[in-house]
Amino acid sequence: MTDVAAVFRSEYGRAVSVLTGVLGDIDLAEDAVQAAFEIAIKKWPQDGLPPSPAGWIITTARRQAIDRIRREQKREAKESAALQLIEQQQPGSEEVYAVPDDRLRMFFTCCHPALAPAAQTALTLRLLGGLTTAEIARAFITGEATVAQRIVRAKAKIRDARIPFRVPDDAELPDRLDGVLRAIYLVFTEGHLTTGGDDPVRDDLSSEAIRLARLLRALMPDEPEVTGLLALELLTQARRPARLDAGGELVPLDQQNRALWDRVLIAEGHELVRACLRRNHPGSYQLQAAIAAVHTSSPRFEDTDWTQIVALYDQLAAVDHSPVVALHRGVAIGERDGASAGLNALDLLADDRRMQQYAVFHAARARLLALVGRMAEAVAAYERAIELTDNPAERRDLERRLSADEP
Predict the structure, then answer these.
(1) Which of 21, 76, 205, 393 is most solvent-facing, going by the fewest CB within 10 Å?
(2) C-beta atoms surrounding 239 within 10 Å
(3) Model's pTM, two decimal places?
(4) pLDDT tens for residues 225-256?
(5) Where is the RNA polymerase sigma factor 70 region 4 type domain positioned along the sequence (predicted)?
(6) What does the domain layout of the chain look like in residue ranges?
(7) Residue 308 pLDDT > 50, yes or no?
């Protein structure tokens, strides 16, 4: 079961993308892949892990789809096309050699401008990241039923509008880019700190998001926001070796052993940030990457240039009015000007309903409240953050902080 779960996490998106390319039907592809994993759950514990688990899943899913098509007499045209593709496969082969890159095609299909932005991201996280509806709901800070409805409607829109499964032409790319960047980054952030499950991080998702960002940059090398996204992901991933201790517990940024940070990724990320600066067209991802570059330039947490970070957050807030940006700006102000100043900045967000459902907001307030001696309020804020947190390692970290600060 553990092997099946690992393959599901790493290969679900690829399998659905490949099958969609073969069948031209997202629902059929997803159903077939899910059926293949159900078969794997029964067979693999008895027969052992196949030499190519991903190939086995894709091949089994194709056969499941063909069986279903054969049972549906009205789909003769699709049956003929699918059967022809099956016949082209080498006998006994479990590998599927997809035309490069089916997952990138899927990103652009899911992020078609005919779909609402929230639907684009929900569908991408479902089909490319293999996240459950509940996990996506937590990432969106919204209800599970709402996310499920978005996904159903988005797939219906793709089907009814006959949105093509392809990378757009050059003239279409800019209009489709924002949704793709947002979706890739949300996949990365889900890997960086999971919204649920037993694993605090999912390196498979983070690595996949970096791979897709690299592919997108190869496709659009002159787009500074694509470069900015890749830089941001690399500089964030560079800190990964120090984010968990030997027992799998989260280590806060101010306590991390920076000698463990990946200097190769940091060097690449810094070079990409410099490339963005030379273009002088700042955007959200470029500014976030610049902030990450400042953090990774400091040999110690105490050496962090918070004045520069606040200035970058000021620029970011001018192009991205998200309360999450305002939250992180407030935290940076607290580091630069003291806990009271940071708390004043966060209090401006207190009436935002999204922030009230966001664990990071309450955790940030709790830390600042404790620093200014408002301990009862700090305890209440920690308790609210713990209540809203589904990541087990993050919850334990908050519980440790609560125990340390409790009077």
Answers:
(1) 76
(2) 21
(3) 0.76
(4) 999 999 999 999 999 999 999 888 889 999 99
(5) 110-158
(6) 2-91, 324-407
(7) yes
Tell me the C-alpha distance between 24 and 159, whole Å: 9
- Quick one: three-class SS letters along 285-335? HHHHHHHHHHHHHCCCHHHCCHHHHHHHHHHHHHHCCCHHHHHHHHHHHHH
The Cα–Cα gap between 57 and 154 comes to 25
* Residue 90 pLDDT > 50: no
pLDDT of residue 331: 97
| The two structure tokens encoding residue 267 | 């060097």
Q: What is the pLDDT of residue 72?
A: 73
> 324-407 architecture in CATH?
Alpha Horseshoe (1.25)
Distances (CA, A) of 336 to 5, 258, 341, 368, 402: 44, 21, 9, 13, 24
> What helix, strand, coil percent values describe the chain, rounded to 5?
75, 0, 25
- Indicate the residue type of 202: R
Residue count (the chain): 407
User: Looking at residue 168, what DSSP letter applies?
Assistant: P
Residues whose CB falls within 8 Å of the CB of residue 174, separated by 6 or more in sequence, listed in order: 223
Per the CB < 8 A criterion, the answer to whether 193 and 201 are in contact is yes
Query: What is the reported pLDDT for 96?
Result: 44
* One-character DSSP codes across 210-251: HHHHHHHHHH-TT-HHHHHHHHHHHHHHTTHHHHB-TTS-B-
Given a contact cutoff of 8 angstroms between Cβ atoms, the answer to whether 288 and 182 are in contact is: no
